[in-house]
Amino acid sequence: MLTPTSNTPLIYADDGYLSHQLRLVLLEKKIEFSETNIRDDEDFAEDLPDINPYNTLPVFIHRELILYNNRIIFEYLEERYHQNKLLPENPIEKAQYRQLWWRIEKDWIKLADTLLTHKDTLDVNQAKIARKQLTESLVTIAPLFAHKAFFLSDTMGVCDCILSSILYRLKPMGIELPLHLCRPLYQYMERMFNRPTFKTSLK
Question: Where is the GST N-terminal domain (predicted)?
Answer without folding.
Answer: 6-85
